[in-house]
């Protein structure tokens, strides 16, 4: 071991990221976790340095390397890039993906990785020759097998594989090793999919970090097998032929592994983190509302206006509106600002401040805003407090200002299958069991059924109600992300409320049957997104 042995892990996922961190720490490494969900400069319970980095903003990656240098007076000699942005497209229409969504995949999966590779090489050049230097990218089979339904995600993986290949070719002889790690199912080399194993990654990454020469940059491995030279093998076990993709691979696109983490719909502030909810909710709203961040009913013009983004979450809506409308000043408001970017990275027309929608409005915010925006707050806005909430929002508006509120109607969730006439009974049973675990809340959310009337009875004028039909491309991702959100949320709830453990275990077993049904029937879920816009009277 060297005094310079430091591992920087960009993207701290619950399986790969945490397992790799634990392994390197156990071997004596100083470990640094870079994530947008941590407090910058804090120390984790395991003793890791935590650095706030948002992989959606590639330039922010440099902050992680600067923090390591400042804290340890040396750059990291092992860098693990574990970030990804998984996005679905219709399997028969890959070019239907919007440029904005395409860029979102590229920023996380490729651009941030490229910046990380740049910074890693800069640091490697300053380290003693005796210190092992390794850059590892967490990949999958998409650089070899073109799964039709994940075109933008697959392209980001292929671009990242190219970065690794170029790095290995250019710097391998200098002792800077670059590896693309791809776990497969033992024996046949099929993609690991949902069965990825954190400890298997940790063991492989530890082996790759040991001193030695650059080995082949593409590392395929299986749990309990170690490194095995698997090629392009689909979910059906058939080797990929570049001239023809078996149609069974299209069915395999529904395997959850390819659309997992950044699109989880997290139960906001109730069970799990809020960071990824903001990302997914923003993408869902963009798609279903034709990329109208502000409804055309709200006049913008060229005048400088002040906009409140209430329950801003990650700040993704505020940042995009600020970029699209530079004459607007956006103030993101939330009870917890841990998921927002650091002040140094913000454009000049965006600020964030702490704010609790369930408490009285501070005097300085009364009639401050020309536009108040809020979305996806139904998790904590109930029939018992909705009237108080909307009155608080109205107090924030200047006379003549506009309120825009977007939410999903959980009372009217529906399920759809691509198989005519077949009802997804296992999925519906899963939903019912989940309702029993968390408590049936529909009786407390009747206001969602009367959204337009709520605006009118609150005194708003020129009220417009928009409830677009959900795009087919959103149905299956919503279905999977709802399951993943509850899976993670129930995992936390099981530890905090042991008396619900049996019910949660039964739900987990039912989840397996539901996932099989989703794959067989191609089940999608409609969250019934809806939006209301209204103008505060002048007098």
UniProtKB/TrEMBL annotation:
Record's keyword terms, sorted: Oxidoreductase
Keyword Membrane listed: no
GO molecular function: oxidoreductase activity
Domain of life: Eukaryota
PANTHER family membership: 5-KETO-D-GLUCONATE 5-REDUCTASE, SHORT-CHAIN DEHYDROGENASE
Entry similarity comment: Belongs to the short-chain dehydrogenases/reductases (SDR) family.
Protein name: Methyltransferase domain-containing protein
Organism: Zasmidium cellare ATCC 36951
